[in-house]
Amino acid sequence: xxxxxxxxxxxxxxxxxxxxxxxxxxxxxxxxxxxxxxxxxxxxxxxxxxxxxxxxxxxxxxxxxxxxxxxxxxxxxxxxxxxxxxxxxxxxxxxxxxxxxxxxxxxxxxxxxxxxxxxxxxxxxxxxxxxxxxxxxxxxxxxxxxxxxxxxxxxxxxxxxxxxxxxxxxxxxxxxxxxxxxxxxxxxxxxxxxxxxxxxxxxxxxxxxxxxxxxxxxxxxxxxxxxxxxxxxxxxxxxxxxxxxxxxxxxxxxxx
Length: 256
Hints:
CATH superfamily of the largest domain: SPOUT methyltransferase, trefoil knot domain
Distance between the termini: 45 Å
Number of helices: 9
Low-confidence stretches: 1-10
Largest sheet: 6 strands, parallel
Helix content: 25-40%
Mean pLDDT: 88
Strand order of the largest sheet: 7-6-5-9-8-10
Number of domains: 2
Order of helices and strands: EHEHEHEHEHEHEHEEHEH
Strand content: 15-25%
Number of strands: 10
Structural class: alpha/beta
CATH architecture of the largest domain: 3-Layer(aba) Sandwich
CATH class of the largest domain: Alpha Beta
């Protein structure tokens, strides 16, 4: 059963939440794009059918406190259960590659490895759209989802960006490499990014705001690249670093 950990961070109040047993069941039955099911810790046996339906569909399930659900739903009569609805549909990675092929361009993909701040994800989507990236890949767990904050921060770019959500980033990197895509991980202990030629089918991995990219993810990358740090601070905001690297790709490809 696809339960997330009990950390309630990253859940934000917004108008993309449907609360109450019957509304939640109808949302699941209707085929709506659901990010996750929220269930209070003390939910009884009545919640089992809802949890089972979400589990069948691969929807993440997160246990939360009653107080947290009260806050998220604006004090509505949530009956101990709610679902968070994505503001935009998710694509498959194959859709991203097909889009690049349709445009006659080398694939240019951004992989977000556990970017948890929705403002960062929204900013990355905005820059990716402006830089001509063909799509973004995010993990199902431990990641900001396509919620209202992401949509607002992207300033409309989310409407035009293909975002795929996958179960395992490392496995997806391996699959991309098999398709001829070179994968570059961004980390402070890598080679100078400015000496890298990105005029090839490529994907850039941007890591978590605090931890960076995961060990296994880094191991599976073709190369690790870094931005030179000249000051006293040894790291950049994830969306800022992503923006610099995305435009390095644009520059390598002749600004096209």
